[in-house]
Amino acid sequence: MKSSRKLGLVMIAPAAIMIILFFLLPVVLTAVFSMTNMTTATGISGGVYQIAPNSLITLKSTMPDIAAELAEPRYAIDEAGLKAVEGLGLAPGIAAELRAKHAGEVFPTRREAERMIKDLAERPSTRDVKQISEQFNRSVVNTRFDSKEELFSALDTLGLKLTPEQKETVAQATYTGWTWTTDNFSRIASSPDMARVLLNTALYVALVLTLFNVGYALLLAIWTHYMPPTPASIFRGIWLLPRITPVVIYVMLWKWLAWDTGFISVLMGKFGYPPKNYLLDTAYHAWFFVVLINGFIGASMGMLVFSSAMKAIPKSQFYASEVDGASRWQQIRYIILPQMRWPILFVTCYQTLSLLASFNEILLATNGGPGNATEVWALSAYHTALRNYAGNLEYGLGAAMALVLVVIGVTLSLLYLRVFNYGTLVAKPLIED
Amino acid sequence: MAERSQPSANYRNWPVLTALTIVSLPLLLMYVYLFLDTVTVKQPDALLPSGLTLNHWRFLWQTTAGKANIWQVTVNTLLFSACTTSLVLIVSSMAGYVLSRLNVPARGFFLAGVMVLHAFPSVTLIIAIFIVLQMIGLYNSLIGVILVKAAIDLPLGIWLMKGFYDTVPWEIEMAGVVDGASRFRVWRSLVLPQVKPGIMALGLFSFLSGWGEFILPQVLAPGNQVQVLSVYLAGFLADDNNYDFNMFKAVGLFYLMPVLIAYALFNKYLMNIYGGGSKG
């Protein structure tokens, strides 16, 4: 008993480790990322504090005075400025006197700073005053600070007296990294684009599922069921081709068929129609091909499941019905279809999940176009997070969209597990020693 | 397949054959022309070829400017699918045995988990793994993609192997255990040979699925050094400057050939998986 358990743990460990590391962890991380506003603009490792023009614009709406103050340059008599003045080659007394009398002082405007410089013992000329005051010009605009503390101490030395709350607001407005937020989910819930994509997804799954994965697959299975073995296996072989062909080649073949230099265009050209891109010219055409492309792949699995289920139907039932004079349609209606209930349910469940999650074919064929006509949820998540026309990849929003799919997938598969009576699947192991 | 109910005299086959041929026509056309177009010359507005040529296969001996070398890419693809396959086979043949035969804690939970995991959308994994790889700076390496791909295939593999182990009569193991062999030894030398069809099926499935995988390498390893054939081909199609559909098709056929050969040789094993026949 003991050794069996230990061996079991050892043998299952690699699978557990791999699944946790490369399967569950990414899903958990997706949930984490979905709670952030991570984009390429914020970066993925933490950010810095920068009083950039656009953060000043945000501040202006909440704290106009402070925003204005931040935008203005200040004149601080500090060591760096004093060193620079010494390097100007003016009378040495100027720098010395500034250091002795005014070090650490901050002047809110240029005029005040210059008045002070004019009053120095050396009486610099107006040209020199301008040159000197320039050395003390300290603007915080476009300066980067690695931490909040650095930002606040810089503001303090420039004489900007802020309350702690104001400081927090400034820090928030000037932070360039990502922050925690639930905005992604409210954006998903409220955006009309998302509603459109959701509708597309529902339409896509419903169409492909009913027309091809179940409907056409059943037709194929029944057709080949009544055929002599050789043509039956030939046709099954043909309909399995889309499934085994790598997706890139498979979609390329459809493009060859439907593009403006493709087969349909050339064929229609013989009848005098100008060539056009049948895949992308209208939304209806795009939908037509998207359903066909995915349907041709999906039909094969249903065909195989249904065929093997039909093979399991006792042949005596067919013979008996033939003796009774049943037509082929009556056989299908009263013998085959009633016994196909479970296979059909299984294929429906399984393929719903596959269709919800798959987007390779649409990505390669139409890339969601024309416009956003064939953009489905998974593809939209991919576009949002990893391949965006605007260039700003919204990792957080994309992760939130992916998480929605995860939730739907898990809910559905738990439901299916119930339907298929999970208990029988986990019957006790055969051997116990 | 031979023992199908034979159609009786009052059923005619030709209407069904015709209908099936018509609906299969698009597929037939595509695959026939895939082959034809790679070895023939065709005028732009013609439907039939006008001459033979090997020019479209020139990518085999000359590298297009700015593109990776085809042989390098092929080796990468082979490496990628072979590594994924071995990983999936080793790990799931062990885990499947445990779930089928041994009593480990949380066994039911694990089995249900495997079922549910199978329904996870791969886009979730891609986004998160992309961000993580960027964070730790391990972007653009083949190893990462191999591990992720293997992890995605694992649930199906474990479930399938469990189904195959379930059909092995337990007397075989009993005999081994009674003769004093350890459980591990029993598994390796007695049980594993019994599930050869399952290993073949899973191995082939895994290889084909790795060979055709597009989105993972595209996102996680797009660099020329680690490029695989699917990414190479997609890049070809997106490149408007060197647009040449016939050469593109030749690359496609080159890429498809191993799949067709494997399928022709082993399709009876593969049916076990594509038919969803993992019920055991």
UniProtKB/TrEMBL annotation, chain A:
The chain crosses the membrane at residues 202-226, 284-306, 342-359, 395-417. Its main location: membrane. The keyword Transport applies. Keywords: Cell membrane, Membrane, Transmembrane, Transmembrane helix, Transport. Residues 199-416 form the ABC transmembrane type-1 domain. InterPro entries: ABC_transporter_permease, MetI-like, MetI-like_sf. It is a multi-pass membrane protein. It is found in: Cell membrane. Belongs to the binding-protein-dependent transport system permease family. This is Inositol-phosphate transport system permease protein. It comes from Rhizobium viscosum.
UniProtKB/TrEMBL annotation, chain B:
It comes from the Bacteria. It is a multi-pass membrane protein. It holds the Pfam family BPD_transp_1. InterPro entries: BP-dep_ABC_trans_perm (IPR050901), MetI-like (IPR000515), MetI-like_sf (IPR035906). It is found in: Cell membrane. CDD domains: TM_PBP2. The chain crosses the membrane at residues 14-36, 78-99, 111-136, 142-161, 247-266. Keywords: Cell membrane, Membrane, Sugar transport, Transmembrane, Transmembrane helix, Transport. Residues 74-266 form the ABC transmembrane type-1 domain. The keyword Protein biosynthesis does not apply. Its main location: membrane. Belongs to the binding-protein-dependent transport system permease family. MalFG subfamily. Part of the ABC transporter complex MalEFGK involved in maltose/maltodextrin import. Probably responsible for the translocation of the substrate across the membrane. This is Maltose/maltodextrin transport system permease protein MalG. It comes from Rhizobium viscosum (Arthrobacter viscosus).
